[in-house]
Amino acid sequence: MAETRSFVFPTKKRSLTDDMDGDRHVASKKSTARYVDPEAALATSRHEFGEHGGVNMSIEASATFTVMEPETMRRMFAGELGPDRDFFIYSRHFNPTVLNLSRQMAALEGTEAAYCTASGMSAISSVLFQLCSGGGHVVASRTLYGGTHALLTHFLPRTCNITTTFVDIDNLAMVRDAIVQGKTTVLYFESVSNPTLAVANTPELCRVAHEKGVTVVVDNTFAPMVVSPARLGADVVVHSISKFISGGADIIAGAICGPSSLVNSMMNVHQGALMLLGPTMNAKVAFELSERIPHLGLRIKEHSRRALAFATRLKKMGLKVIYPGLEDHPHHALLKSIGNKEYGYGGLLCVDMETEEKANRFMNYLQNYAQFGFMAVSLGYYETLMSCSGSSTSSEMNAEEKELAGISPGLVRMSVGYIGTLEQKWSQMEKALNKMQDHGLLFNKT
């Protein structure tokens, strides 16, 4: 059989007279170096209408697709016909509804293409499987989401002999020295780190990696719209859509945004990680998410506004607060310079209570005494979600790894919600803090 190609993202625009409008599946044009507002990019992306003229697209819930002529199926499997001309084989390969969401994600991140997956971890693992071969090498930030850290530390070495060197990405010399010429294929980091909220100097890290011929993969889950890594030089951007982009804490999903050549290779029927591993997004999930992306910008702005307000007030009270929007944050100026204007500094803040016991007491009072938020992992929900990272989302890391990553035992990560009024929620926060003070647990409070 001839090598199968995927035609989701054609290399040249088809004319209006071409059959079946082959340009309709293009995710977005490759961005230029000039600033592009993510909301503007979304607004100019193609709008998919319903089958009968509805303002919302129809859901293509079929697992498999029919053809009119037997010869057509052979040509599809041979790579001669594809989704760019409305020829679909099977929804694990391509699905029209999932493709629409993928186009939105590409517009959001300013990449040529994107494809959406069943979870954030499936997006991350599929990209790494596609870019790395057995015996390969990755250089990664030492501060990562615990699941990603476990994938790189334990799973990939055991199953594929793919090893990782973890580095302080603030130290460009360390990053450069860790790259092994001819062996390292990926530099991996988070735009804003989980949970320490360190901001990566994406332009400089990309420069170092590209000088060595290394592909840069950035997890932008913590900062959609706040930062656009691809516009800063990153090759691939991955997301857990389950978080801010979904906003409802009711969907598990992921996305891979990058060059059309990468996305097409990942859907190849012979060697594509997405095609062969099968982390397929359900079309009904894709439809729901595509209806939420248009108001993502409004939500991000309010998450950021409230997070800055709470961080500023908590700091004035003498608590140890970590938030990139505070001027004393070591990366405040960096994020201000590389971030997208109008979207603030993100919706997450951390309060370091020093010990796990005090962190747990604080969260208990916030949830069960003051009704400020919920003790739960994840982020981007309209209610505030809080967790003690060291014993939850970073529990896969050992004590030494947590120390190197800057994760204190008492670090409380808060995803600040926007329900209720700001002053209403602040009064609930104060109620919990006063309870802590009454029990002598806020030694630094003035």
Helix and strand arrangement:
Elements lengths: L37 H6 L26 H8 L18 H14 L3 E5 L2 H12 L5 E5 L4 H15 L2 E5 L4 H7 L5 E7 L11 H10 L3 E5 L16 E5 L13 E5 L1 H7 L6 H5 L5 H10 L3 H21 L4 E2 L9 H7 L9 E5 L3 H14 L4 E2 L9 E4 L10 H7 L5 E5 L6 H17 L8
Parallel strand pairs: 2-3, 2-4, 4-5, 5-6, 10-11
Antiparallel strand pairs: 1-7, 6-7, 8-9, 9-12, 11-12
Protein name: Methionine gamma-lyase
Pfam family, one: Cys_Met_Meta_PP
Organism: Quillaja saponaria
Explain what the structure shows.
Strand 2, helix 5 (146-160) and strand 3 form a beta-alpha-beta unit. This protein has helices at 38-43, 70-77, 96-109, 120-131, 146-160, 172-178, 202-211, 260-266, 273-277, 283-292, 296-316, 332-338, 356-369, 399-405, 422-438; strands at residues 113-117, 137-141, 163-167, 184-190, 215-219, 236-240, 254-258, 321-322, 348-352, 374-375, 385-388, 411-415. Residues 1-32 have low confidence and may be disordered. It has a 7-stranded mixed beta sheet, with helices on both faces. A 5-stranded mixed beta sheet has the order 8-9-12-11-10, with helices on one face. It is of the alpha/beta class and 446 residues long. 36% of the residues lie in helices and 12% in strands. It has a domain at 295-438: Aspartate Aminotransferase, domain 1 (Alpha-Beta Complex). It is built from 15 helices and 12 strands.
